[in-house]
Design goal:
- The complex is a heterodimer.
- Chain A is an all-alpha fold.
- Chain A is built from eleven helices and no strands.
- Chain A has one domain.
- The longest helix of chain A has about 35 residues.
- Chain A is elongated, with a radius of gyration of 21 Å.
- The two termini of chain A are about 25 Å apart.
- By secondary structure, chain B is of the alpha/beta class.
- The longest helix of chain B has 14 residues.
- Chain B starts with a strand and ends with a helix.
- The chains are: A mainly alpha, B alpha/beta.
- At the A-B interface, α1 and α6 of A face α2 of B.
Chain lengths: ~260, ~300
């Protein structure tokens, strides 16, 4: 336990001193602020552009925005945030492979599963913190400017999206134990998500795939019921669990 | 007691057999020089001992305990210094040693005291900067400190001096000599002068086996060469000598060499005196590790 804690401490120190924590914090803070800001600024923007729009035959009569517009922004911006997260953190394992820093720790008797456990936990916690920071800011601003009660199933829909991120973290961990370069990690995780999208194009499959969880808009507008999301939710949970679980034996047999 | 015993170790990468039946015995409190060309399999052997690579077959015993791949509990006896040790660049040297201590389950106070002592030993006692800014020599010295942290019974160093300048090399060798009291040292190298300076035992690795191994002094006696070197006064006499002694070979200018097996040294001396050939030097060669190394690797 003590050696695992020591490795955790090292991971945290690394996130802090390498500046990754700061960058991620700032990016998700920015997204959190942008969601309500964009919604708030839309009427102003339309007003400014009224003349130009009128010339092209469009007339702005009344532009009203609500918390809904801000939540639409939230779900629209979150993929961007997740991509930044993945790009920044994809080297968490592979950097140690290429520099050889793990060799000394492992030859000192640090068990391999503790490495996977520490890194997986750090990634999951980091994603959770970033995500809920962004959510918290958007939620607070929406509550201040408008009223969040307009959005239906809000909490459920954001939990779904968060879980999609957790699954991507699990994929990253698994592909990090399989591949030695972060290109492999990025292609593997990205490829898996792409595959989900493509399979999702088949009408009957769509609602069983993890990608379905990112469609929070339909939930907040009340176009879908939480019950519709349950199959995808369970499957995503299962995929995450399997990926995390597989990472341990794969890493145990890895040549370093 | 033997600190490390390797029996019939085999390892193959693809169709290249790197180790084919390696046998090695490292006695306690020795400084064991593990000598071989680049690519001879030195690093492979060491990584297998540490459980970083899986052996195809063979047995390794460290401190009386068998090495198992994946679950290498024998690593608690071992301190390891890789050829290019990699540390977390964002830490300072004391922080890194504290991290190592926590991983190995050392008591906090013990770890602090030992870190301080070792950092003094390797000359990093006053270093406050992060490892990011360390030179190669400094990293190598920190590498020795981390390897010695939990007082290992066996210290394995993979080419610890290869990448260093003469001063850095001397420092590392001196440190290895100092720690001999506390531990057994196995180090690989292809720098033979390093071996002659500090090693008590050696093994030459060639073609995947230890072709020659044992106490350095015994090997030297056993392989005492029968080679003589002579330097004559005038080059004009060269053809005469070469004609009389066909086995003699010209090294350079007026230098000649011959093996006593072919003609006795006295015979040559007599010929020189009869023919009144001026002599500048007549020397019996001591075997150097270099000549042994060449002999072993060219067999």
């Amino acid at each position: 336990m003590r050696s695992w804690l020591a490795f955790m401490k090292k991971e945290c120190t690394e996130q802090l001193r390498s500046g990754k924590l700061l960058i991620l914090g700032l990016v998700f803070l920015l997204f959190g602020v942008m969601n309500p800001a964009v919604a708030k600024l839309t009427p102003l923007l339309l007003e400014v552009m009224e003349e130009a729009l009128a010339q092209s035959g469009m007339f702005v009569t009344e532009a009203s925005v609500s918390a809904m517009d801000s939540w639409v922004q939230f779900f629209k911006n979150m993929p961007m945030g997740l991509i930044v997260f993945v790009l920044l953190e994809s080297r968490i394992f592979t950097k140690e492979y290429s520099s050889g820093t793990l060799v000394l720790s492992l030859t000192k008797g640090l068990e391999r599963f503790k490495v996977v456990a520490a890194k997986a936990l750090v990634l999951s916690v980091l994603w959770t913190l970033c995500y809920w920071l962004c959510f918290g800011i958007t939620f607070g601003a929406n509550e201040y400017f408008w009223d969040n009660s307009a959005a239906q199933n809000l909490f459920f829909s954001v939990v779904c999206w968060w879980l999609f991120g957790v699954m991507l973290v699990a994929l990253m961990v698994l592909f990090s134990t399989l591949f030695n370069s972060n290109i492999g990690v990025l292609l593997g995780s990205g490829g898996a998500v792409l595959a989900f999208y493509l399979i999702g194009l088949i009408p009957k499959c769509g609602k069983y795939l993890p990608v379905y969880l990112t469609g929070g808009n339909s939930l907040v507008y009340g176009l879908a019921e939480p019950g519709d999301f349950v199959p995808a939710l369970l499957i995503t949970l299962a995929i995450s669990a399997v990926c995390f679980a597989l990472s341990f034996p794969v890493f145990n047999k890895k040549k370093l | 007691m033997d600190m490390l015993r390797i029996t019939d170790l085999h390892k193959r990468f693809g169709d290249k057999e790197v180790l084919c039946g390696l046998n090695l015995t490292v006695p306690e409190h020795s400084i064991y020089g593990f000598i071989g060309k680049n690519g001879a399999g030195k690093t492979t052997t060491m990584k297998t001992i540490l459980g970083l690579l899986k052996a195809d077959s063979g047995e390794m015993i460290v401190g009386g305990e068998k090495v198992l791949y994946g679950q290498t509990s024998t690593n608690r006896y071992i301190g390891y210094l890789p050829d290019v040790p990699a540390f977390y660049p964002f830490m300072t040297a004391p922080e890194y040693l504290r991290f190592c201590g926590e991983i190995t389950g050392m008591k906090k106070a013990e770890c602090e005291a030992r870190s301080k002592e070792l950092l003094e030993l390797v000359g990093l006692g006053d270093e406050k900067h992060r490892i990011k800014g360390f030179s190669r020599g400094m990293k190598q010295r920190l590498g020795i400190a981390q390897a010695l942290l939990n007082s290992p019974k066996l210290l394995i160093c993979d080419e610890p001096t290869s990448a260093l300048d003469p001063v850095g090399r001397k420092e590392i060798l001196d440190i290895l000599l100092t720690v001999r009291e506390q531990t057994t040292v196995l180090f690989s190298t292809h720098i033979l002068s390093d071996v002659e300076r500090i090693c008590t035992d050696v093994a030459f690795l060639n073609n995947g086996t230890a072709e020659l191994r044992g106490k350095l002094s015994e090997i030297k006696t056993k392989y005492r060469s029968e080679e003589y070197l002579l330097e004559i006064d005038s080059e004009a006499d060269l053809p005469k000598l070469l004609q009389a002694f066909p086995g003699m070979e010209q090294r350079s200018g007026k230098h000649l060499a011959f093996h006593e097996g072919e003609r006795s040294a006295f015979e040559v001396l007599r010929f020189l005196s009869d023919e009144k050939i001026g002599l500048l030097k007549f020397e019996r060669m001591e075997p150097t590790l270099e000549s042994l190394f060449v002999e072993v690797t060219q067999k």
